[in-house]
Amino acid sequence: MIVTRARFSDFLVVGDESGVLLNSRFIHLGQIATAVVQAAEVPVSITHLADVLEQRFGRPASLDLDAAVLGVVKELVAEGVLTEVVDGE
After folding, report:
1. For site-directed labelling of 81, which of 1, 29, 41, 60 has its Cα 20 to 30 A away?
2. DSSP 8
């Protein structure tokens, strides 16, 4: 799965967290989601995002990092913050 940032009205980072203004909705993002959105400024894979998060936060001891990142990405896609890149886009 390859994803990139959706086109949103505004993206404000304050410390490690952020807010996205998407149409008329405001979406608050925590540290991990903010790091994912920042890394997805260009199309990126789940593996690349997992590497970025591991470098920034460390590797979780008892968690499949790729599966956890995929879960975060799916939530962000469902909210409209990220968009899945389809071949040819």
Report:
1. 60
2. -
Single-letter residue type at 80: G
Q: What is the pLDDT of residues 63-89, one digit of tens each?
A: 899 999 999 999 999 999 999 998 755
Q: Look at the chain and count its residues.
A: 89
Residues 32 and 72 sit within 8 Å (Cβ to Cβ): yes
Q: Please count the helices (runs of H) and the strands (runs of E) in the chain.
A: 3, 6
- 20 CA to centre of own chain: 12
Beta carbons of 81 and 5 less than 8 angstroms apart: yes
Q: What is the pTM of this model?
A: 0.91
**Token pair of 51, please?**
């590497």
Q: Is 20 helix (H, G, I), strand (E, B) or coil?
A: strand
Q: Give SS3 for 79.
A: helix
Instruction: Report how far apart, in Å, the C-alpha atoms of 29 and of each of 11, 81, 86, 88 are.
Output: 10, 10, 25, 29
